[in-house]
């Protein structure tokens, strides 16, 4: 089954599980500090941002599902040794720094530790929608798809507002040049969720 089919089945299951329970919908924004690891990439964390929408869907007495749809902007840098690893087709005039933008879909399962604190974890899929890198001549360096696991903690100062910190651990290799070296996506987010309205 392809990714689109899996997402359709997932959201269908979410809908029918939670149709009789109260749901919340809102907006989210965060500072996103990221690092792309691997040969030829600069080993440093750099700041970007995430913004989008989320839903809170009760699925059990203490469990809520939190699917999100995010615009995720990363700043990435190649290392000075990039031409050493990629001699063929290397573009020596390419900018050292560039941006990658993803449409990110985390699906998190929330569990409350107390009335104010919740932990969550779940899978995340990222679709590359923009890149201004020019590391190679006539070839893109990054794959269009990325997937991994996201986990974090939320603090709820009020029923409609939550402050969160989370970490994304990319599992898939996003290097589209060849299979010799693997590049992995690592991200740390600190942000706020604001519930806009609820539906029963």
Summing up helix and strand content along with how strands pair, one would put the structural category as: mainly beta
Number of discrete helical segments: 2
Number of strands: 8
Integer average pLDDT: 90
Rg over C-alpha atoms, rounded to the nearest angstrom: 19 Å
Proportion of helical residues: 10-25%
Succession of helices and strands: HEEEHEEEEE
The end-to-end span amounts to: 33 Å
Let me know the largest β-sheet.
8 strands, antiparallel, barrel
With strands numbered from the N-terminus, the spatial order across the biggest sheet is 1-2-3-4-5-6-7-8
Q: What portion of residues belong to β-strands?
A: over 45%
Helix and strand arrangement:
Elements: H1 3-18, E1 23-37, E2 46-58, E3 64-77, H2 82-85, E4 97-112, E5 117-131, E6 145-158, E7 161-170, E8 184-199
Antiparallel strand pairs: 1-2, 1-8, 2-3, 3-4, 4-5, 5-6, 6-7, 7-8
What does this 3D model show about the protein?
By secondary structure, this protein is mainly beta. It is 10% helix and 56% strand. The protein contains two helices and eight strands. It has an eight-stranded antiparallel β-barrel. A hairpin with an 8-residue loop joins strand 1 and strand 2. It is elongated, with a radius of gyration of 19 Å. About 2% of the residues have low confidence.
